[in-house]
Amino acid sequence: MANFRTKRKIDDQISISFKTKAIKINDWVIIRLPAEASAKLPSRGQNMVEGTINQTEFSTPLEPDGNWNHWFSLTPELRKKINLDMDKTVDLKLTTVKQWPDPRVPQDLMAALKNSKPALASWQTITPMARWEWVRWLRSTANPATREKRIKVAVSKLNSGEKRPCCWNRNLCTEPSISKNGVLLKP
Questions:
Q1: 46 vs 28: CA distance, rounded Å
Q2: Do 170 and 64 meet the contact criterion of CB atoms below 8 Å apart?
Q3: 9 close to 42: Cβ distance less than 8 angstroms
Q4: What is the pLDDT of residues 166-180, one digit of tens each?
Q5: Domains of the chain
């Protein structure tokens, strides 16, 4: 039987604190949130947070892991700032944020948008959260042919005024190099 949680408004700011160790999956160094911390978040999908790791401030999207929990990547810059030791526990304090920053738009998607004035105009009017969903949907495939098709679909949908990609599970991990079938790999 499914375990249903009380739905919270996404606008509610949620704060969570926990201690954990970084893990390595392939070439990625990540923090996987404990299930109890993830359960407090307002969405099983992506959440934007700001906070501290070992008292160093940062902000990042928390990505779904495909198992109702979340993770985030530790960039080389952040690892250097916090002097990360993979064998030591890190202390995290995270708070969800209402205002999402714009995602980095992949070059191939931006080129396609620039070739279609209606799609680009639509892109510029949607929310940053909606832009993140388009980028996540696009990057969730490792197949170049599928990616190319998704770019064409995105432009077509944006041309017709659609604001978000449809018909995909936003609760899956969208990084093919560290997941299988939308589920984050084990270290």
A1: 18
A2: yes
A3: yes
A4: 888 999 999 999 999
A5: 15-96 (2.40.30.100), 107-178 (no CATH)
